[in-house]
Amino acid sequence: MAKKGRYSGIGGQAVLEGIMMKNKEKYAVAVRRPDGGISVEVDNHRGILPGSKVKEIPFVRGIFNFIDSLVLGMKCLNFSASFYEEEPGGEEGDSGQQKPKNETGEKLMSALVTCFAVVLALGIFVVLPYYLTSLLKNSLRNQSLMAIIEGVVRILIFILYIWGISLMKDIRRLYRYHGAEHKCINCIERGRPLTPSNVMRSSRLHKRCGTSFIFFVFLVSIVLFFFIRVENPVARVAIRIALMPVVAGISYEIIRLAGRTDNIFIQILSAPGMAIQRMTTKEPDESMVEVAIAAVEAVFDWKQYLRDNFGYEAENLETGEG
If you ran DSSP here, which 8-state letter would residue 29 be given? Predict the structure, then answer.
C-alpha cells in the first residue's frame, strides 16, 4: 500500500550533468565528471541577512528565499560547468579535477549574470505581456478584462519559452536531471529507502518545484495587477515591476503550504503547475539517479528520517525494502 507523503525539508536544482540538493543551510552539488566519476562539493549557504528574524516573517521570507535561491543556483551552475570548460588535453587534466580559479572574478561574473537574468526575465514575463496586451486597448476598453488577458498572455509566453528551450539537447538532458531530483525527494517523502530501483519508480513531479512556484507567481500577479488603475503606461509597467517582490512573497507561502498539505483544494491549486512540470522534467536513467542520490546523502540522513517518520527498522533500510 502506498504511504502518505511527509515533508522532508530538502529541495534541489538540476545543474549541468548533476544535481544540487539543499537541507536548511547545508547544500551539496554532485556532478558526473567527464571521466565517469561523481564529484560532490558540500558547503553552507546562509544567504543574505543570515540569522535575521526578518527572514522568518511570512510573506517577507519568500522574497529573501527567492534571492538566495538565485544566488546559490548560479554558484552551483558555475561549479558544474567548471568540469566541462576545458577541452581534452587542456589544463583540467585527465583526472577531471578543476584548475585553480579566480574566486573574486567568478563572484563578480556570477553577480552580473544573475542581474542580467533577472532583468531579462522581467522584460520577457512582465514588460512583454503588458506591451502585447496594450495593442488591444483600442478594441477593448475594459481594464479588468485587459488585466486577465495580460495574465493569460504571460502564462502562454512562459509555456512557449519552456517548449522552445526544450528543443536544445543540453536542456533536455538538464530536464532529465531535474526529474532525478524530484524522484529522489518523492522516494524519501513517500517512505521508501533511497535506492536506485525505488527512486526510478517514484514520480518525477513534485508540488514544491520551482516550475510550480513560477506558475503561482503568474497566478498571483493576475490578481494583484487586476487592481492597478493607473493610466500612464510607464507608471503601470513600473508598478508591475515594483510589485514583483510582493508577488514572490505571496507565491512562496502558497507553495510552502502545498509542500506540507495534501487536501483537495491544494491539489486543485497545484494541478496546473504539476502539468507544466511534465515539460520541465523528463525521465532520467539510472546513472543520473546515482548522481542525485549522492547529492541527497551528502546533506540529508534519509535513514534517520524514515525511522522517525515511517517507523523503519534498521534491517529494512539495509535491504532496501520499501
Answer: E
Please report where in the chains the cell 536544445 appears, as a residue: 168
Cell numbers found for residue 182: 524530484
Q: From residue 214, give the alpha-carbon distance in Å to each of 41, 218, 246, 259.
A: 28, 6, 14, 15
3-state secondary structure of 175: helix
Q: What single string gives the DSSP state of each residue in 197-242?
A: HHHHTS-S--TT-HHHHHHHHHHHHHHHHTT-----HHHHHHHHHH
Range list of H helices, the chain = 61-81, 103-122, 128-134, 143-165, 169-189, 196-200, 210-225, 233-242, 244-258, 264-280, 286-299, 302-310, 314-319
Dihedral sign of CA atoms 126, 131, 132, 133 in order? positive
Give the separation between CA 304 and CA 322, rounded to whole angstroms.
15
pLDDT at res. 3: 58
Q: Computed from CA positions of residues 99, 102, 103, 106, in that sequence, does the dihedral angle turn out positive or negative?
A: negative
- Cell output for 295: 547529492
The H or E element containing residue 123 is: none
pLDDT value of position 142: 85
Euclidean distance between CA atoms 188 and 201, whole angstroms: 12
Contact (CB, 8 A) for 177 and 14: yes
Residue 85: DSSP 8-state: S
Spatial separation of the C-alpha atoms in residues 207 and 270, rounded to whole Å = 7
Partner residues linked to 32 by β-bridges: 38
- Mean pLDDT is lowest, of 28-32, 172-176, 219-223, 318-322, for 318-322
Assign 66 to helix, strand or coil.
helix
CA dihedral over 311, 184, 212, 49, signed as positive or negative: positive
Name the burial class of residue 281, with classes exposed (0-12), middle (13-18) and buried (19+) by CB atoms within 10 angstroms of its CB. Answer: buried
280: its cell numbers? 520541465
Calpha distance 310→189 (Å, rounded): 10
